[in-house]
Amino acid sequence: MHVEEHLRYGRLDYLFGMNRSVNLNFLKITISVFAIVVIICISLSMAGEKQSPISGTFVSFAWHHQNWDQLRWAKEFEAMAKLKFDTLIIQSVARLEPDSDKVISYYSSKSYQTKWPHVDWILNEADRRDWKVYLGGVADDTGEYDNDPEFVELSKKIADELYSSYKMHKSFAGYYIATEPLLNEAGKYGKRAIYKVYGKYLKEKYPEKKVVLSPYFITDASVRCKKSGLKKWWHDRNPKEMAKQATLFLKNCPVDIVALQDSTCWDVTMDDLRKYLPEISQNVQAAGREFWVDMEVFDTYGHTTYAPAPIQRIMEQIEVEKKYKCVMYTFNWCMDPNGTEHSKALYEQYYNAYFK
Question: What's this model's pTM, rounded to 2 decimal places?
Answer without folding.
Answer: 0.84
